[in-house]
Structure formats: structure tokens, C-alpha cells
Amino acid sequence: MADSQSSSGPATAPTAQNPGTGYTPGDDAWTQWRNIFAILTGKMTDEGKEQFRVARDIRNEAADCKSCEGHRDYLLQYSPVIRFLSDNIRQLGGDLSSHNIYCRRCTKRKAGGFDPEYGILLCANELKDRGHLEDTLAHEMVHAYDHLRFKVDWTADLRHAACTEIRASSLSGECRWAREFFRRGQWKFTQQHQECVRRRAILSVRARPACKDEAHAERVVNEVWDSCFRDTRPFDEIYR
């Protein structure tokens, strides 16, 4: 579990505002409102906003993780897509359940991750609701399926990384039209799914150490696009 801050005794008076960022440290209600007002009025820098988010995540860590674990357990039992992926992973000799799907506070701005040795990480402080968690968990379970089915090279072969990212974004539901339209401000009505999958795959490949730059990431994604986007295994087609 990630480190968390604790406090005891009555709330103290808020400390002075950081003149460089506009962020005021403190957990009391007045300080929280002061920071929110600074954000709404444009008086807080991006650095200050990040400090505010980190403090909020630490303060809410226990509640976020408890909520995440409740959603995780519900989806493992009742979600058709999660149960389907879990069954197919089990048929390949894998095992993903509550014992190796972890809810934790993350310090990087991502929703989750997959590690072949440890399992799946769900970033409790970044997940907005059960639907968001379901898409994230499905994404990471596609990675787990690919690892078992196709023996993915996660470190050296960017083509492998690009292919599994294309498949995970396409099959998980995170690129469905409603999510793109209402949450990400992507308002196109044609080719929306493909553009979302391509964009997210390029971003993921770009973040890998072996990738030189964005042009390199885009080139690798384009090289594997046709075969990997058409490959919907273990599904018959793109359902979500």
C-alpha cells in the first residue's frame, strides 16, 4: 500500500499560500475551498494544481481504495466482459482475481497497469466510477491474455507493445463513442473508434524507454495496425 499521511487533534489554521503556485497546504474545509476558488479563478498554476491533487489523493486514499476494491469484486462476479476475459485467461493457465488485482493510490496519472509477475494494478485515485474501473480492468486483462497467448516481449519489442495496446484499447470499451464524446471532448461521428485506439496506442508506445520520439511511436503503431486492429481474440468481434 502506498504511503499515506495521518493527522490527529483539531485542525490547525491554514498555512500561508505558496506565492509561486497559488496552492495553500492544509486539510481543513476553509483551505480546501480557498484552493478550489484559486483553481476556478485561474490563480493556481499547473504545479499548484498537481500539489492540490496529490494532497487530495493522500487524504482520500483509504476511502478510494475501499471503493475500488468493492467495484473490483462486483465486476469479477457480475460483469460479462470481465468474467469472459477471466475465463479465457484461466484456460491459458493464468489466474486473475482479487488476490492479484490490486487497488492502490498511484503517483503517476494513469488508471492502471499490468505486470506479468505481479498482476494488475488499479489506480484507485484515478478511477471515476465503476464503469471507468470496468474499462480499465478489461484493458489490463487483455494485456494479460496477450501475455499468455502470444508471449509478448514487454521491454525490447515495440511492435509487441503496440499490438497489445491496440487490442486492449479496442476491445476494452474505453474507446466507445459515448466515453470519447462526453468525457474526452472527441466529437467526431466517423472513424471515432479507430482514431481513439490509434491515439492511445501511440501515447502508450511513446512512454516506453525504447521509443525515441512520437514519430517513432506512430511509425511502429502503423506497422502493426491492420493485423492487430482486426484481431479481436478472445472475442468474436468488438462488442463494447
Automatic annotation (TrEMBL):
It is a peripheral membrane protein. Keywords: Hydrolase, Membrane, Metal-binding, Metalloprotease, Mitochondrion, Mitochondrion inner membrane, Protease. GO terms for molecular function: metal ion binding; metalloendopeptidase activity. Residues 1-28 are annotated as: Disordered. GO terms for cellular component: mitochondrial inner membrane. Its main location: mitochondrion. The keyword Membrane applies. It is found in: Mitochondrion inner membrane. GO terms for biological process: mitochondrial protein processing; mitochondrial proton-transporting ATP synthase complex assembly. Its EC number is 3.4.24.-. InterPro entries: Peptidase_M76_ATP23. Residues 1-21 have a biased composition (Polar residues). Has a dual role in the assembly of mitochondrial ATPase. Acts as a protease that removes N-terminal residues of mitochondrial ATPase CF(0) subunit 6 at the intermembrane space side. Also involved in the correct assembly of the membrane-embedded ATPase CF(0) particle, probably mediating association of subunit 6 with the subunit 9 ring. Belongs to the peptidase M76 family. This is Mitochondrial inner membrane protease ATP23. The gene is ATP23.
